[in-house]
Amino acid sequence: MEGKLETPFQMENTKVWIAGHRGLVGGAIAKRLSRENCTIVTIDRDELDLRDQVGVKKWLEKEKPSIIILAAAKVGGIVANSTQPADFLYDNLVIETNIIKAAHEIEVKKLLFLGSSCIYPRDAKQPMVEEELLTGPLEKTNESYAIAKIAGLKMCEAFRTQYGCDFISAQPTNLYGEGDKFDPEMGHVIPALMVKAHKGKLNNYSKLNVWGSGTPKREFLYIHDLADALVHLLKNYSGKSHINIGTGEEFSIKQLAEKICDVVGFQGELVFDTTKPDGSPRKLVNNSRLAELGWNSKTSLDEGLAKTYKWYLDNVS
Ligand code: GDP
Question: Lowest CB count within 10 Å: 32, 68, 141, 183, which one?
């Protein structure tokens, strides 16, 4: 397979910058990297705005990490994406261009860029192989985010082609887990439904409001599985193509809502609010390349939801 390393890339004694360490992805990567013999560097948002090109370059010149994990992004659920298209496009484009360009200038050894399965056309053949990229129109509800992420992965490809940079990109499916944004309006479906079901249980509500028809299907990857996959990619992959990361399993939103009610212990009835958007009908990624590199996901949705709810109870509610 193109890009599969015969000798693993050495992470020992390297300095790794996790851009976006406070987010869902960045937090899980920090935890996973604590098992590697490397030094993690981070910088908080109030000290460095990643949209500031000069500031990013100066910080990188001072820190000189040898590896960058680019997990910083403006993210949100279907309503956040569709109501703030300018911010999703601008912030994400600027963050990634600033970091990728400066990474080349300070000659980092490796950069890993994080995208999302929404980069694929709305009607892409399922499960979606990497070659489905740019074969058709995007899903409208997250078009801005997808365009920014496509630009980011193409930028990694372009810097590899033109300058020989070891920049790779991973496109994970829908993510969830500890550290997610538990916001019923702006969050993704899992944390949003968890909060609503939890509040419903506490207040003895008889109904749970589920957006859309309940028929769209999604593939959900537990965040600590993702972090493990990313470290695996860093060590074992150095190729031009982006790499999908998923579980191979999909659930309808109705099935998901039922599972969340079980985990939370909410007994009410599901009510589908069809004034809210469904988004893509399906977004299942083909994982063959990652499997060929020797990685498969481990955590079932039931197990991941139980761990996520426990974290929510201990840290948020
Ligand atoms: P998407 O994968 O980009 O569409 O991201 P989301 O996680 O926001 O939504 C996934 C699906 O869950 C969509 O079909 C939503 O309409 C549906 N959904 C059902 N209830 C909710 C909810 O309370 N919040 C969100 N964000 N989505 C919901």
Answer: 183
